[in-house]
Design goal:
It is a single chain. This protein has a domain of 36 residues. It contains three helices and no strands. The N and C termini lie far apart (116 Å).
């Protein structure tokens, strides 16, 4: 059964008559305005906390896996780029050495 505002007013009037205005106000402030079946209990909060922790752990696990995958992809890309640069440097060094060799032979022949 839900308590209406009229029920609360009648209770306040009775309390005001019986114990005075200030104590009646204090008592009414201590009573919840929500129906009792809508109030959150300590066990509700513990269950919510447990669920929230499990959700956060799950999200962190997914994030960790995604980051590991991204890092692995970046390492692979970096290795490919480094190998490409190494090959390009080797080709240039070969050309430079060949050009120097030709220059040495030409200088010796002249």
């Amino acid at each position: 059964m839900s308590t209406t505002d009229r029920d609360r007013r009648e209770l306040f009037t009775s309390l005001e008559t019986a114990i005075g205005t200030k104590p009646a106000n204090t008592f009414m402030e201590l009573l919840p305005r929500q129906p009792a079946d809508e109030l959150v209990t300590r066990s509700d909060m513990h269950a919510f906390g447990s669920t929230l922790r499990a959700d956060v752990r799950s999200d962190m696990t997914e994030l960790r896996a995604a980051l590991r995958g991204e890092m692995a992809d970046l390492r692979t890309e970096l290795r490919v780029e480094m190998a490409s640069l190494r090959g390009e440097m080797n080709r240039w060094m070969g050309r430079i050495l060949a050009a120097n060799g030709i220059a040495v032979v030409t200088a010796l022949l002249t």
